Amino acid sequence: MTDGGMMGGGMMWGVGAFGLLLLILAVLLIAALVKYLFFR
């Protein structure tokens, strides 16, 4: 029972970390795009 809970928690943390990484990449991409468009 506890093993299943630990596994689920670990998986959720992994998905959360992956989502956070994607969010950071998206923000960097948008910042680069804004910089390129407005500061030529």
Care to describe what's here?
This protein is an all-alpha fold and 40 residues long. The chain is built from one helix and no strands. The protein has one helix at 2-38. The protein has one domain (1-40). The longest helix has 37 residues, at 2-38. The protein is rod-shaped and about 50 Å long.
Largest sheet: none
Distance between the termini: 59 Å
- By DSSP, the count of extended strands is 0
Principal-axes geometry comes out as: rod-shaped
Question: Helix count, per DSSP?
Answer: 1
Q: Structural class from helices and strands?
A: mainly alpha
Q: What is the count of distinct domains?
A: 1
Helices and strands, in order, run as H
Percent range for β-strand residues = under 5%
Question: How much helix is in the residues?
Answer: over 70%
What is the CA-atom radius of gyration, in angstroms? 17 Å
- Mean pLDDT over the full residue set: 83
Low-confidence stretches: none
Quick structural gist:
The chain is an all-alpha fold.
Note the topology:
Elements: H1 2-38
Name the descriptors.
40 residues, 1 helix, mainly alpha, rod-shaped
